[in-house]
Every structure is written in structure tokens, then in C-alpha cells.
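Bug: C-alpha cell stream looks shifted between consecutive jobs. Job 1:
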Amino acid sequence: MRTAVSLAILLLVTSLSTLTGVYADVPSDGSTVRISADETWSGYNSMDGNVIVENGSTLTIEGEVLVATNYSMTIEEGATLILTGSLLGDDLDSELNVLNNTQLDLNFGDLANSGQLRINFAQTIPASAMFNITVGEETVDAAGQDHIFIDVSLNGTDLVVDFDIYYAFGIQIVSIQALHSGSGDSPILLANQINQTNGSLIWKSASFQLDVHGTMLFDGATLYGADVNCSGVCDIQSSSLVGSAPINVNDGSSIIVNSSSILGSRTDEDIVVHDLAQITYTNNQGTGGFTDGWIRLLSQRQIQTNAPNITVHQTGIGYGSTTLDDITDSNGLIDIGGSEWKRIVEWVDGNGIYHSEGGELTLTLSTGWGDFSTTVSAPHTPTATINVPLPYIEVVSIDAEDTTAEVNKKIGAMVTVRNTGDANATVNIWCYVGDNLTETTALTTTLAPAEEKDLPVSWWANTDGAQILNCRALIPTILQSIAEDVTNVEGGNSQEVGWYIGEETEDQPFIVYGILVVVILIGTSLFARRAGENLSSREVKEYIEEEDDD
């Protein structure tokens, strides 16, 4: 009994000691704090260090946390971050990109009857640019300047700033300050604080890192200046994210963004969905302008085909709808995603309109058997397999008409061939005895898929002995590397045929002798006739000469 009581007390003490060590203060000295149990941060806190929420634990932030620059918050797999308050980076490095139709709506309150606006630019505007800024009746030419002053009323009235710009490249505003001669400060609006339309907020760098491997739940939250990487589940509801884009949603993870505002991206998109990660994006306000609401970016676009040297004609590929011709390598591989633009296959633009790449691929393999081709939609996956329909030519059998044949005389045979592949082919069939090409009639035929034909052939042999006729398809050079995929390379064989040399008969010598006698007689007759003709001519000549003498 005493032992049981002691054990209970020990367990109670251990539990209490564990509970007292669970709570982790917000780091304030650059250290790393690990949160291993559920914890809630309320009120205002300054975070100067790193926070790791461990597996099985939940950190809830209800208040406001100001995060020092270059620190991080990591939500491990199996852990949860719930944000209903604010996470604010203390270094907000933003610029406002202004266009020809950008408009600023400002009100600094009742400071003085008159004053000036100082508008500070991120760079000196080239003198060749047309860059006019108008407030009310006042217009200032900003060309050649890195800041301008413009006279305004600062008595609490609304100020509308219009731009008349003709310049090929973007110009960014860093801040706007209200200057006056009255009492009080001269307030400054940073780029992210300026109320504007048709501009684009650009964030130069993030203040802190937020890595989510577990679950992140935002509801009515505010996030400023974070570099967000989502490798788990990220759910953003009715929240405001400023300078915290792009949110990278890694392959295998998911993100939901609903009725939220994501303003100010360090790139040309607010959310980057990688490979096959999932996204639900509804009723949101994005950065706008040239910045897309979200894109799906593939890490690669590698396609495995069934042959080398396939020409791949690509149209409508990626964000820029690229057209290109390429060819598969020796392994039948091709990568159609040579640039980031070619790897963007889905996106919501700055106006909230959804787009999907409609690219097509035409794969063509040109061979001595014909051109084999297929056209398909370009896959929206990092890897895919596309096969060109190919024939499969099979020499099924060879049936010789006899099992014996005489050397130098022909024997007939029937060669049966069929196509069990998926494409028409016009093929030559060559026949061999052993490894040597033998003398047969030419065999050329065209076979459709599932077609079988019997081809008659005549076979001669110039040597005697037992021989087997082997016939097989002549494989074009371009198909040699995949020969076994297009034909039975061993071909088909006939039964064994015994070739013999024919024997001479008893009548053969007499026939030869008879022919020889006839030739001799004919020759003798021709000779005698010619001699007789020559003698007659001479006698006539002599007679004439004698008459002349008389």
C-alpha cells in the first residue's frame, strides 16, 4: 500500500514538473525556443529569435507579435499554428510600381492650410522618359529626378495623384511625405501604406521566414513581411497578407485562400503552386497589375517516349504560348520545359481571371517503313509518357513446297507475315540461309494493324545439302535501337529442305555428239559452197580475157 501511494505521489510530482516546464516565452535574445505543448500568445510580444513548434503541439497567436529581421518560425510535421492576431516583420522593404493609369488617394489629416508632397522614387527617372504627376491643378515633370515636390492643401482634404507616363520600364515609389510649416510632424507613408489603384506593390525582401510542414490556420489574421513556404496544409480565411508573397506551396501540400487579401509580392505572382500541389482560391484580392494571383509551376516537363529521334512539334506551351520543334534523345526523352515560362501551366492573372495552358504536342517518327505520328495535349505534370503508335511486323511461318530440291533450280515457298502493332507499315522481307543473304524473289508488302498476308517466294540454292530458309523484316537504321519493339528480329523459318546436284542420263552424251556432227556438216557445206563460187568467177574471167585477145 505504501509502495502504491509513493508511486502515485511520484507520478503526480513528475506531471507537475512537466507542466511547469511546458510554457515557452517568446524568444527575445536571439535564441531558439521549442514549443512542445499547446500554447497561446496574447497581447503584444516582440520576437527576437527562432521558434519551432514541435510535432503534436499547437501555437495559437491571438495578439500581436513583432518579428525581428532574419529570424524564423517553423511548424513541424504534425504541429499546428493558429493565427487570429498579427505576425509583423519589423523591416518592411516595399515599393509601389506606378503605371500610366495608376491613381493614389491620400489624406494626411488637417496639418496646415498648404504644404508640399515629397514623392520619393526608388531610382532616378531617365530624362528621356515622359513622367508627369498631377495633383489638382498642379503638374510636375519628374523626368531626370529621384524625388519631386508638388504643392498641395494639407487641411484634411482628399488628395488624388494622377500619372501621365510614357516609358517602357516600371518606376517605383518608395514613400510619400507631407511637408508643411505648421506644428507637428511631417508624416510619411511607406509604399505598402499608400492607398492606390492600378499600381502594383513590390516587396524587395522578406523580413522573416515562416516554414509550415504541418498545419497553418489563419482566420482574420494579419501577416506582414514573411517568406512563407507551405509544405503541409495552409488554410487562410478572411486575412490580410502584406509583403508576404509569393507563398510557395510545395508538391504534395495544399492551400486554401478565401476572402483574403495578398498584397505586395517579391516576384510576379502572389502564390506559386509547385507541381501537383492543390489550391482552392476564392473571392480574394491579389496584388494585381503584372502580378498574377497564383501560378502552377512545374519543376520540369520531361516526357518519355518509345523511340529516339522522334520530332516533337510543340505549340501553345506555357505562359507565353511558345511554339518549338525538338527531338527526343537516344533514350527517347525530351524536356519541353526549358524555361520557367514553359513550365507555367495554370494561372490566375492580376485581374482574377483563370487561365490554363492549351498546348499540343505532335510526335512524328519518320522511317523507311513510313511516318508514325500522334498528336496529344501537352501534359500538365512534371513527367509523362507518350508513345508513338508503331507497327509490329512478325514473320509467322515459311512453308516450302517440298522437302527436296535440285541445286540451281527454284523451289516455291509461302511466307506468312502479320502486323500486330498500331500503325500501317510498308516493309521489305529479306531471306537468309544461316547468316548469308540467299537468292529469292523480292518481298515487299504493306500491312495495316491486325492484318496478315501470305507472300509467295521462289528460292534458289547454288550449293547442295540440308538448308533452312529464314526470312525477316529489313529494319530501317532509325529503328535499330528499338528493333525488338517493332518486329520479331529472329524472323520465321521454313522446314529443312535437302538440296542435291542432279545426275547426268545415258542419252546426254549421244545428244551432245549429234549436235557436234550437225555443226561440222553445216560448216563443211558452207565452206564447199564458198569455194565453188570462187572457182566459177575465175573461169568466167579467163574466158572473157581470151575473147578480147582474139
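Job 2, same session, no restart:
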Amino acid sequence: MTDYTAPVKDMSFVLDELCDLEGLNGLSSFADVTPDLVDHILNESARFTGEVVAPLNQSGDRQASVLEGTEVRTPDGFKEAYAQFVEGGWNSTPFEPEYGGMGLPWTVTTALQEMWQSANLAWSLCPMLTIGVIEALIAHATPELRNRYLSKLVSGEWTGTMNLTEPQAGTDLSLLKTRAVREGDHYRVTGQKIFITFGEQDYTDNIIHLALARLPDAPPGVKGISLLLVPKYLVNEDGSLGERNDVFAVSLEHKLGIHASPTCVMAFGDAGGAIGYLIGEEHDGLRCMFTMMNNARLNVGLQGVSIGERAYQQAVEYAKSRVQSAPVSGGGEAATIIQHPDVRRMLMMMRAQVEAMRATAYYTNSALDRSRHHDDEDVRRANHARMELLTPVVKAWCTDLGVDIASIGVQVHGGMGFIEETGAAQYLRDSRIAPIYEGTNGIQAIDLLGRKLLRDGGDAMSDLLDEMEQLDEALVATQDADCVAVQKSLADGRVALRKASDWLLDPTNNDIDTKFAGATPFLHMTGTVVGGWLMARAALAAHRKAANSGDRSFLEAKIVTARFYADHVLPRVHALLPEITQGSGSVLALAEDQF
């Protein structure tokens, strides 16, 4: 397995040229976030992930986390790496100084999270879940709970988990059976949760669980769900740890990948009831939990970028060193496989899609930052709509591609890719969970179509397509053959996306099953076109900078990569259009007993 080197130059290019980091830094909330500070943070994180976290990836996969009694022992080095993570203040980067945070834009933290996830996906899941818990507490907890728990969570001294799923209740949370009974200023929680990432670990001396439960007088369905904070150890008024709470890990799941991440079955209240504290209002837990879930969905989407980048780096290094067969152009002697056109095609497919995914994930988080911190209410509203539209795209499109890219990485290695020692297979195994957890990708497609496109009548999508069209003139004006070709391919893709959107919005097409049969192709089309738009913007920025830059090679590579995306990826939308508008009949034709 090759070493991981964080692509800081690529990250900075996206932050500067596609996310307008300078504009973000101009907002009052980020006035102290200077370019020099961001450069220092990115480079220091690159050093930490490359030297400390990445070397544990393969050994952690082999050793795995184990349950000893009710305590989890993580692989060698994981606990020590996490201690360095906390010491470096990395957990606190996106949170306001009033909570002990560094106050960086989420956009910058997104680049940092990509590094953590690329370096060691299993290890990175613990801080990722903690970040979501912090978001939920800031948004919905009482001042007393925030004062008691936030500072330790923000620093990373304590970690957090999300407890939704039960054996009978996966996507359909209306079926959950975990109960919470009022008892003075707290509740007694009983029940079982499954698939709880880092539900138990040896990193910290306390774990803060957020759990969905139903009160005895709760109305049926999802409207009767409440959100409870259940600490592993109760916390005294002075902040010290009290007695052990009645919540324990009772087993670990045996998984296809992310072996080093303990995925726990958690038992709440086997000895009388775990003490929990209400977050938000009674019966309003799902809305509160969605604060955490939306954060997690963006971060899980980033996992597709991260695993794709790691697989790409290893595939490139292998292709440069593996000698096999003479080039088809002649020469007679065996050459490194990167000389072969089909290997080049695979590497370019990996590279171009990773860059498009990275751009989409970072850009969506920049919209999140502007939706929260811009001074103009109209700008905040527009960016909120853009972020909401693209969140399911980031989650599903990026994670689907992450699996595809990891699979291509195995293919580049040939037979050696199927051998565990090379490490290529681990990326494929690890990547496969991302399209499943935090809402399966089918659920994300339903969200994009139902809660985003149809609910607002297509306004957010139309605004995005109109903004894409404004790029045409600038690309053509370059008179650069690559930029012009990118513009034409993007324009064709944009037209296809508008046709698909209009068909789905057509009120005469009122068969809802017919529309939703094409939800996943529609999400893939949206991701492909949005990625193409951002790649086109990258090509334009690179063209403008190349003439006066000392790094022409890097900028020229941006243009070539965008051209490859336009030639080989964007045309896929034309196959997706009939899937959306004409393909529902065969999707729904068979009777159930014919399967």
C-alpha cells in the first residue's frame, strides 16, 4: 500500500477558484481566517494525516476492533493517533469560539475532513459523528446541556454517536421501539440500537449518545419520536464524571469493510433504564436529529471523494512502476503500464471524477457557510436553497462514484488488486458502506426528487441551471479549443437536465410511481452535470491564470482533466434522459410474483 499525500494544491485551487474562499473570508464571521492561516492549517493537516493517521490504515483493517466484555479495544496506534488529533485542536475547527472552536468556515473543514477520511476512513468515522452531535446540541439543546457537554465535545475530549437504527426499524423510523419514560428532570431510556458507529471505544473517558426514542404518550409514527442525550458516564454539575450509565455495547458487527471502526449493538437500560436528557421538545426528535443527519450526509458524501482520491493515488503509483507488455504503438520492449492507452483511460476516469466530486462537495459546503453567515438575507436564502438541493447529490452521487473509482483502482492493479496485501481491495471494501449508511442512496434520490425538485416547483434547480448558462459566453470567449469543447458538452448536459426536470415537474404526468422510478437516474444526471459545470469553471480559471503563472503544468492539467470529463463523463447524461422519461414502464411491469 502506497503512502497517502494530501492533494493540498488541488484542494486550495477548489477553495480559491470554485468556492471563493476570499469572499468567505470577507464575511464578518470569518474576518480572522486569512489565506496564510488556511495554507498553514491545510499543510499541517497534510503532515499529520500523512505521518500519523495514514500508516495505520492497513494494519487497522487487519487487526480490527474487538469487544472485550463491554469494552472495545481499537487497533494498535488508533487511540494514540486520536490523542494527537485532539491535542492539535483538529476537532474544533468549524465551531464558534464561544464553544471553544477555531471558527473556520465549513468549507475549509471539508478539506481537512477529506484528508482524515482518505488517510484512514475507519479511524475518521469517530470525529465525523462527534461533529454531528455538536451541531445538534448547538441547534437544539438547552443552555444547561450545552454548558455541560459542548466544550468537551468540541475539543474532542469526549466523542459522540448517533443512535437511530433498530433491528426492525432501518429507514422507517416510525417503527422504532426504544422507550423513554419521564423521571423528574430526565428520562429512563430502554431499548436496543444497531449499527452504531464507535458506540464504544477506548479513545476517551466519556461518550455522548444521541438516541431516538418514543415516550409512553407519544403519537404514532415519526411525529412521536423524541431525541435524548444519553452519556456513557453521567456528568456532575462541576463537570466531573459521575456513575456509569446503563448503556453498553453488547456486540460488534462483522462487516465487509471499515473493520477498524467498531460498529456496535447498543443496549439501553438492561439494568433499569439509562438516564437521558431531552434535546429539543418532546415528540420533535426527528427534526432535531435531521440537523445531525444532514451534516453526516455531506460528510459521508465526502467519503466518496476521499476513498476515490486514495485509490487514485495508489493506482497511479502502481501504474508508474508495474512493467507489463510492450506498448501497442510499438517498441518491442515491455513498458510500465501507464504507457498503455486503456490504463491511461482508467486513470483519467478516476482523476476526472474525483476532481468533479471534490468540487461539488466543497462548493455545497461553501453554500452552507454563506447560508449561515452572509450579511444579506436574500443571499442567505438562495444559498440555503442551493445547499439543500445539492446535499442528497453530494451524499449519493459521490459515494456511488467512490465505489466505482475504488473498483477501477483494483482493475488497474490487475490480479494484484485482488490480493489484500496491495491494499487496493481494502478501498473497495471500505467504500461500499458509504452508499448505504446515513440514508441509502435510493432515499437520497427520493429526497432530491420529492422534497427538493417537486416541493418548490423546480425553482432551486432552475436557478442553478440559469447560473450554469451564464458560463457559456466566458468559455467561448477564451477561443481555447479545450474550453470551447467543454462549453459545448456542458450546454448539452444542461439541456438534458432541464428536459428531465421539466418532465418530472409536468402536472399532466401525475403517476407518482412513474416519476420515482427514475429518481436515481435523475440524481446521477444532476451530479454529473453539476460536476461538469464546476469542472468547466475550473478550466476557465486555469486558462485565465496560466498566462501569468509559474505553475503552468498544474493549470494545464486542470484544463485537460476538464476536457476529459466533458468528452467521457458528461455524455452519459444522454443515456440517463430516456431512463428518466421513458423507462418507468419496464421498471414497474413485472408483478411481484414474477420476481
